[in-house]
Amino acid sequence: MRRGALTLLVAVGLTLATVRVERVGAAPNSWRDEMCAPEPHHPCGEGVLQGGAPVVYLLDRPGISVMGKLAFVEDLFRPGAFAVDVAAFWLTLLGLAAIARRQRVTR
Fold it and tell me: 3-state class of 22 per DSSP?
């Protein structure tokens, strides 16, 4: 039980750290009419800054936040994508822990 909780905390930490994995990607379709400024200010056609890995869970909101910087308070946070990232890291860590236990037992 404690190992599972510890690996979950590590997985959450790793997922939070991946917000630094930034790339520019397409803006959500719902933003195109509402939030995207006309040329040359910030057209969404250029894309918006996104953070997270393996699945993007934080998107820079045009016109609301400081452009080119991600922040949990003012940008779009996708909790479902965040949960997928946490699950991916957690399962990987649990798998590695099981392999390490099995190696220890066989020696």
Answer: strand
**Residue 88, pLDDT above cutoff 60:** yes
User: Rounded to whole angstroms, how far apart are CA atoms 39 and 29?
Assistant: 17
- Cβ contacts of 42 within 8 Å, gap of 6 or more: 36, 62, 63, 67
Confidence of residue 79 (pLDDT cuts 50, 70, 90): very high
Distance CA 53, CA 38 (A): 30
In SS3 terms, 26-53 reads as CCCCCHHHHCCCCCCCCCHHHCEEEECC
pTM (2 d.p.): 0.79
